[in-house]
Amino acid sequence: SSSNTATNEFVAGTSDTAADAADSTTVGTAADTTASETPLLDQTAYENQFIQQPIGGESTTTSSLFPSGLNVFSPTSIATKPHYLSSSITGQLWLDVDRNGKRGSFIDPTLNAAEQDSGVTGVDAIVLVDCDTNTEVAVTKSQPVRGDGQVVIQKATETSGRAGGYNFPEVMNRPGRYYIVYKAPMGFRINSNVLPMVEVKAEKSEETGTLSYFECPLMGGEGGMFYEDAVENGEFDYGGYCGRSVGCFEVGRKRDLVDKFENLIEVDEGTGEELYGLDDMVVAYPSQHMLDVGLAEQEWPLNTQQYA
């Protein structure tokens, strides 16, 4: 009873003061709340633009990437795998913020948005290579390219979707099988969705040990040599300066690709209608995001990793 009385007295005795405080605080707090919540609401709306679902898997060793061994590279095996049709040879260099090789997150909307939206622009020496001969076909840069030539991180939502994007329109009239080789710009490592390669003709600074010049080899064809090396010599230590696409993709008329591949999937066919005519020149990719490659910020010289 005494406890109840004390409580009641406290409430009664402070009610006027509490009301005054509430009145005096309401105006200021409302303004403060609006100011503080608006950026939060803007950030939430921004993050909600992106499907919160990661693309691709974690990095893995080369030998475990091809569990069926060399058979995975046989023409028969390739022909039976699903292939995704597109009208262009195009991809994106995206920023691997947390360096785990996987783009996006199920549980972290801020990380998910950052990796889905950020592109690394101005990266040169993106080389399209003939899969059969391992010879250079074309070279391009990730867009948009600044006037000073600097490599920068930009948002796709602020660059009309171009941030980190690249393509090879001039090759769409040239049937054949191809892969792409990537060269890391200073301060980055090639970190996702690639078969890593050892740089060649490398020159290092005597003072810092950082590479002052290097080239990325054009090698591997369909990719069998990577598996053979891993089995024969064990996994190699790769620096992350060079990488190439996992496997090869094919350019040709749709009617020819229909005869070659058992399961062609037309990307974005939401209506259920076919997107391309039999005489259209198209690209058949063995994975839908084959040419989207993650770059992670990292100071040079890069530490070595055993991964693909």
Structural features, described:
- With 308 residues, the protein is α+β, with helices and mostly antiparallel strands.
- Helices cover 27% and strands 26% of the residues.
- It has helices at residues 2-47, 62-65, 75-80, 109-117, 224-233, 254-260; strands at 82-86, 90-95, 118-121, 126-130, 136-140, 152-155, 165-167, 176-183, 188-192, 195-197, 200-204, 211-215, 242-244, 249-253, 263-266, 281-285, 292-297.
- The strands form 4 sheets. Strands 1, 4, 5, 8, 10, 13, 14, 15 and 16 form a 9-stranded mixed beta sheet that branches. A 4-stranded mixed beta sheet has the order 7-2-17-9, covered by helices on one side.
- The protein starts with a helix and ends in an 11-residue tail after the last strand.
- 30% of the residues are buried.
